[in-house]
Amino acid sequence: MEKITILQAAESPSKRLSKAFILDADNKIQTIGYDRCKYFNIKMRDVGSIDDLSSLLLKIESRSDLMVIRGLPRSEVDVSKKAFRQTFKPNNPEREVHPPQEKPFKDEPISWLMIDVDKQLLPNGIDLVDDADAAIDCVVKQLPAEFQSVTYHWQLSSSAGIFNTDHISVHLWFWLTAPQTSLVIREWAKTFNLITGSKLIDTALFQAVQAHYTSAPTLLSAISDPIRQRSGLTKRLSNAVNIDLDIQPPAPTPNTASSSSVKAGRRLLHHSTSTGFDS
Predict the structure, then answer these.
(1) Other CB atoms within 10 Å distance of the CB of residue 146
(2) pTM of the complete model
(3) Please, are residues 181 and 108 in contact by the beta-carbon 8 Å criterion?
(4) How do 218-219 and 20-23 pair as beta strands?
(5) pLDDT tens digits for range 233-278
(6) Cα–Cα distance, 120 to 135 (Å, whole number)
(7) Which residue from 83, 165, 152 is spatially nearest to 122, judged by alpha carbons?
């Protein structure tokens, strides 16, 4: 078993950590973004498998005041008290002036991974509302080979299906065979995107305190959800993925040698024996 960090909005009135949708005067759907929140309650839960993770995510999906982060609280943090959503940087000379509750989280190796895919155009003939399983499968098939036979928890994003049904935005949660830091996963994802020439995987997610939104959308003005089921567990042959951290980006050409993205992708990937710390 290992710990997963759930954050609860700790301000009054209660803050909403989910998108909301409302009808305007012209009967058109408008989006209300996430509430800004400064203070959070820290709720640690035990997970030991993709089944545990899926059960937890399904349980908290109805809570618009909760979200998940990859970071874990450092030992000095009192998890019974509210805290900021900030990363502790051990090499920062100013760290002594910050109480633990102000810089509470650090990047530690963990055994789960959420892949965020945003606004992917679906192939002709596949409609998100009519066949969500086929739409999600189209996304999974674009992931590396080692993901193809692995069980995953999926959750459609808050806006999926609200404005159109020919695109998909989805969160795919996997269990890993070995814990990895956010730093390692971010470099792997950057390299994969370079190899495929795409931005399929949102690499910004792989930071200690980056929000992993888990709530279903908040629908106001009697708006009906066009999606019958927004989340679930898809069982495959294996329950954990062994990510290939040895993948290498394509060799730079003279036209791309100075590209900052290529330089970023050429960092050596390393295993979780080395811990990274992010903002």
Answers:
(1) 14
(2) 0.87
(3) yes
(4) parallel
(5) 999 999 999 999 999 887 777 665 455 554 444 444 444 433 332 3
(6) 10
(7) 165
